[in-house]
Design brief:
Number of strands: 11
Number of helices: 9
Helix content: 25-40%
Oligomer: single chain
Low-confidence stretches: none
Strand content: 15-25%
Radius of gyration: 22 Å
Strand order of the largest sheet: 1-2-3-5-4
């Protein structure tokens, strides 16, 4: 269990019909505890939406009941063993719906719950190896570089990036494409789309990072990087909740073994993706060629002119 999330939830929790606001910008969602001791998230709303098909979350009972004017929406945790996940879901709902009210708040809450349903019933079909090492690379960049120079909220928002962003890490004034490989992998970088290196930012970097399986002290895994990031951003509840939501989403298919598989850093390089950097741009593709079909490979040996002698964190620092 994540004790930080549990501690946040358990702090000054009242008993129904009383409740305590769990997000400073959302007055609707209140945490509480039923007379039976079960943890509850409750919202009294001035509107009602007749929904026949509510999301199914294993271990959580979702209920939407009409009242004289509006409705009461409740989420009740059935098994305290999952309090960490329940707290995470509740904080995320309150955070993501802070700008909504009435009918829109209900519909957006249901949308969020649908996306969370897989967390309680993960498929665990195993992450493809390329996705596993790629996610290790992203988390390493976040843990060892972004959080060191940005505040927690900005660092996590950059990792999440705008919706439909083609780059791994995107902020207002910089973007980073992470290319993580197993050591010994051929010294080439695969670009999966023309959009991947086509973005307008003041600073755009290609971060190449190589790992090898290792049990040595200092090696990293999905779980160890998660724990390290949590400890560095715990002062910001919003950043912590956003990170855990997206980490859970990205690792939904990871097996228990993949979550703890450890890797040692062998090499990291940063390249400046400027106007001269060898890349294919969307505007350069003839109309007769489908833009979605464009993939290409860059030889790392040809990128010496773009190799930077600073660490990634130094390059993105606002100082």
């Amino acid at each position: 269990m994540d004790n930080k999330l549990i501690d946040q939830w358990m702090f000054e929790i009242p008993t129904l019909p009383n409740g305590k606001q769990i997000h400073p910008d959302n007055e609707f969602f209140l945490k509480s505890r039923g007379l039976d001791g079960k943890n509850v998230l409750v919202a009294e709303l001035d509107d009602f939406v007749d929904l026949n098909d509510l999301p199914k979350l294993q271990g959580i009972v979702l209920d939407l009941q009409p009242k004289l004017r509006g409705c009461i929406l409740t989420l009740t945790l059935q098994d305290s063993e999952h309090l960490d996940k329940f707290a995470l879901i509740c904080f995320n709902i309150a955070q993501q719906t802070s700008t909504y009210s009435g009918r829109d708040l209900i519909l957006h809450t249901i949308k969020i719950l649908n996306s969370w349903s897989k967390l309680f019933s993960p498929s665990r079909t195993k992450l493809p190896e390329s996705e596993l090492i790629g996610l290790i690379g992203e988390l390493y960049a976040l843990d060892r570089h972004l959080i060191e120079v940005l505040n927690p909220k900005l660092a996590i928002r950059a990792w999440i990036g705008p919706e439909d962003a083609k780059q791994d890490i995107v902020a207002d004034n910089f973007a980073i494409e992470v290319k993580a490989h197993h050591s010994g992998f051929s010294n080439k970088i695969s670009i999966s789309s023309a959009e991947q290196l086509d973005i307008q930012r003041e600073r755009f970097f290609l971060y190449k990072i190589d790992f090898s399986p290792s049990e040595k002290l200092g090696s990293v895994s999905l779980n160890s990087l998660k724990d390290s990031i949590n400890s560095k951003i715990e002062t910001s509840s919003e950043a912590l909740n956003e990170f855990m939501f997206h980490f859970s989403d990205k690792t939904e298919k990871a097996t228990d073994q993949q979550l703890v598989m450890s890797y040692a850093l062998d090499n990291e390089s940063v390249f400046n993706v400027n106007a001269e950097f060898p890349k294919i741009l969307l505007d350069d593709i003839p109309p007769a060629i489908s833009k979605d079909s464009v993939k290409y490979i860059i030889e790392v040996s040809a990128l010496d002119d773009f190799l930077l002698d600073k660490k990634l964190g130094e390059l993105i620092s606002n100082d």
